[in-house]
Design a protein that fits this description.
The complex is a heterodimer.
Chain A (H helix, E strand, L loop, with lengths): L1 H16 L13 E17 L6 E8 L2 E8 L3 H6 L12 E9 L5 E9 L4 E2 L15
Parallel strand pairs in A: 3-5
Antiparallel strand pairs in A: 1-2, 1-4, 2-3, 4-5, 5-6
Chain B lengths: L1 H18 L16 E2 L2 E2 L30 E4 L20 H11 L23 E7 L4 E8 L6 E5 L16 E7 L3 E7 L19 E10 L2 E9 L8 E9 L30
Parallel strand pairs in B: 6-7
Antiparallel strand pairs in B: 1-2, 3-4, 3-11, 4-5, 5-6, 7-8, 8-9, 9-10, 10-11
Classes of the chains: A alpha+beta, B alpha+beta.
Chain lengths: ~140, ~280
């Protein structure tokens, strides 16, 4: 009962907050909601561009480097949540979880970005994990 | 027992909100929120903008008593299905030809021009805010502009000087708009001259170049803007109909940001889809 109530309250708080959940681009035409990935590597490029911010992660496996192209929300949506083009920097070590592309290799829709020092980026608002903040 | 009342109360509050997202009848594709996967929401990380509660103070007015539409607004039109704005129990009066077009578009939903950085047309909404610009001289309003952040960093121009629509127009994405205030409470925008390229929504609901829209924008209180849109298009629908939408005032301090969609649109690559405008 308590759990169900919690779910209802969580749903309501989301609705009441007016959180904008509709993205510009339809996810299901591009990414596979059942095909997840988790990888760790170094950020080699950040594109703070429309319609989606992208960052590229060099993943080394078996002595071979593969670059993954990761998709985030639009710059304006991220900025409204307190993130900036300086949140993620070239050279940062990150662990990324997300949904893989339906067709193209090494492309992902990121759902979680964790830095080497344990900060979680881009999920929720930047000041959620204050003090220290996530938008450094 | 008390808990039952609490749950019932929550449901009573929640269901009307959820109903706004409910899919329309008729076996169309599922509109609404993005689905959930093993990692939670399947959608772009960071797109879920947390919004401040909507203010409910009195409707602001200009010195002459006309409603003041100033502010940054979110919503106000269809995204997933224009049918979601119909009165309860109504369905879209689609002509057989329009049903065929929708069935075809259901097989190629990635051809939606909006996905390829084309304008959304009228009255479609986007996940991005817009702003009314009320332009006065010392005599009267001359023009109004609706400045849209997306899609695609575009504007609509509304002539407020009493002119009529030209008899012949070259079709455009936003058409030719004339406007006036109804009793100083409601901005009425009458538009014709649209092209038939944009889709009303993600369902691919079509229209033709005969489209005539009449938007009635009413700021019902400080933070809420109602848009009642009459859609009249004898080329696509058997009769005119009205859809109603709500826009909410954005948080204080929020402003239009740059949204140049064409800058780095990689849509299609991950899913293997071709740009319909490049075919």
């Amino acid at each position: 009962m308590k759990g169900k109530l919690g779910v209802l309250v969580a749903c309501l708080s989301l609705l009441g907050s007016g959180a904008g959940l509709v993205a510009h681009h339809s996810f299901s035409t591009e990414y596979d909601g059942a095909k997840t990935f988790k990888l760790t590597g170094a950020v080699s490029k950040v594109e703070w561009t429309n319609p989606h911010v992208r960052f590229y992660v060099d993943v080394v496996e078996g002595g071979k480097t593969e670059t993954w192209n990761m998709e985030l929300a639009s710059p304006s949506a991220l900025a409204r949540n307190g993130w900036t083009s300086r949140t993620l920097k070239v050279g940062d070590k990150v662990t990324v979880e997300g949904y893989a592309a339906k067709v193209a290799p090494n492309r992902g829709n990121a759902r979680s970005v964790i830095t080497a020092d344990g900060r979680s980026l881009f999920g929720g608002a930047a000041d959620d994990n204050a003090p220290g903040g996530g938008n450094q | 027992m008390r808990r039952v009342f609490v749950v019932a109360g929550i449901l009573a509050l929640a269901l009307p909100l959820l109903a706004q997202q409910a899919p329309p009848a008729g076996g169309q594709r599922q509109p609404g929120r993005e689905a959930q996967g093993p990692l939670g929401t399947v959608g772009a990380l960071g797109q879920e903008v947390r919004r401040a509660p909507t203010p409910t103070g009195p409707t602001p007015r200009l010195p002459d008593g006309t409603v003041d539409l100033n502010g940054l607004w979110n919503g106000g039109g269809p995204v997933n299905s224009i049918a979601q704005g119909l009165p309860k129990g109504e369905t879209l009066p689609l002509l057989p030809k329009s049903k065929e077009i929708m069935a075809d578009r259901a097989t190629r939903e990635t051809d939606d021009p909006h996905l390829w950085c084309m304008p959304m047309g009228v009255p479609r909404s986007t996940p991005y805010p817009f702003r009314f610009v009320q332009n006065y001289t010392h005599k009267a309003p001359t023009h109004m502009f609706i400045v849209h952040e997306g899609n695609i960093h575009s504007f609509r121009q509304i002539f407020m000087d009493g002119r009529k629509h030209p008899p012949e127009l070259d079709p455009t994405w936003f058409g030719h708009s004339i406007g006036w205030f109804d009793n100083k409470d409601t901005l009425v925008i009458d538009s014709v001259g649209f092209n038939d390229k944009f889709w009303f929504d993600r369902q691919g609901t079509p229209h033709t170049e005969q489209l005539h829209t009449i938007e009635r924008w009413t700021r019902v209180n400080e933070g809420t803007l109602r848009n009642e849109v009459t859609i009249d298009d004898p080329g696509a629908f058997s009769r005119a109909f009205v859809t109603t939408w709500t826009a909410r005032l954005a948080a204080p301090g929020d402003e239009i940001m740059e949204y140049i969609c064409q800058e780095n649109n990689q849509y299609g690559i991950a899913g293997g889809h071709q740009n319909p405008f490049a075919k």
